[in-house]
């Protein structure tokens, strides 16, 4: 965990002082919010900073630090190792849609959505209780904060890291 904190600090510093295509890109917003320090470290380790600072549009389902901490012990540290960059990239791209989807644009009921990780699907359910996202493991994340607007898209804060796997069943 000590190495993760060090990597997180280095990544946050690099992102803060890096050149951004937009003053308020998704990366800029996440970098400025301590709740996303683990996500920022992962995006940096995967080499996706420049992409997510680009013009987009993007929708990012952004897990908070507590969501990463809830993964089995050692998972984050393992994913951040250079030899696991491909797997880390897949996990992160599972959290990104190449459209700008505000909460109001998500249809009521359960619907499949195709993230940038094109081989996978998410089942997003919108109802009176809010918006939830079922991942490929059958686990469900809840959107705890919707519609953080960026110049290149929108961020929806989720309480769980979404993981690829077999396709989730929408009910």
3D structure, described in words:
By secondary structure, the protein is of the alpha+beta class. The chain has one domain (2-158): FAS1 domain (Roll). The chain is built from 7 helices and 7 strands, in the order H-H-H-H-E-H-H-H-E-E-E-E-E-E. Strands 2-1-7-6-5-4-3 form a 7-stranded mixed sheet. A hairpin with a 5-residue loop joins strand 5 (130-134) and strand 6. Helix 1 packs across helix 3. The radius of gyration is 15 Å and the shape is globular. Mean pLDDT is 85; it is low at 1-22.
Could you write a compact summary of the structure shown?
The chain is an alpha+beta fold.
Strand content: 15-25%
Query: What is the C-alpha radius of gyration, as a whole number of Å?
Result: 15 Å
Residue stretches low in confidence (pLDDT < 50, at least 5 long) are: 1-22
Q: What is the CATH T-level topology?
A: FAS1 domain
Average predicted local confidence, pLDDT: 85
CATH superfamily membership = FAS1 domain
CATH class: Mainly Beta
Number of strands: 7
Structural class comes to: alpha+beta
Number of helices: 7
Any guess at the CATH architecture? Roll
Show the helix and strand layout.
Layout: H1 2-17, H2 26-31, H3 37-45, H4 49-53, E1 58-63, H5 65-69, H6 75-79, H7 85-93, E2 96-97, E3 109-113, E4 122-127, E5 130-134, E6 140-150, E7 153-158
Parallel strand pairs: 1-7
Antiparallel strand pairs: 1-2, 3-4, 4-5, 5-6, 6-7
Search tags:
171 residues, alpha+beta, FAS1 domain, seven-stranded mixed beta sheet, globular, disordered N terminus
């Amino acid at each position: 965990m000590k190495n993760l904190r060090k990597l997180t600090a280095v990544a946050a510093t690099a992102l803060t002082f890096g050149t951004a295509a937009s003053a308020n890109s998704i990366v800029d917003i996440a970098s400025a919010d301590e709740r996303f320090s683990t996500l920022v470290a992962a995006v940096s380790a995967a080499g996706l900073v420049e992409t997510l600072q680009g013009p987009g549009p993007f929708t990012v389902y952004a897990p908070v630090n507590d969501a990463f901490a809830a993964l089995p012990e050692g998972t984050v540290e393992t994913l951040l190792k250079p030899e696991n960059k491909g797997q880390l990239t897949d996990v992160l791209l599972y959290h990104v849609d190449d459209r700008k989807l505000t909460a109001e644009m998500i249809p009521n009921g359960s619907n499949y959505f195709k993230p940038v990780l094109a081989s996978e699907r998410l089942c997003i359910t919108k109802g009176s209780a809010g918006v939830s996202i079922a991942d490929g493991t059958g686990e469900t994340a809840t959107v705890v904060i919707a519609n953080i607007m960026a110049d290149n898209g929108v961020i929806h804060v989720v309480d769980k890291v979404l993981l690829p796997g077999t396709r989730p069943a929408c009910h």
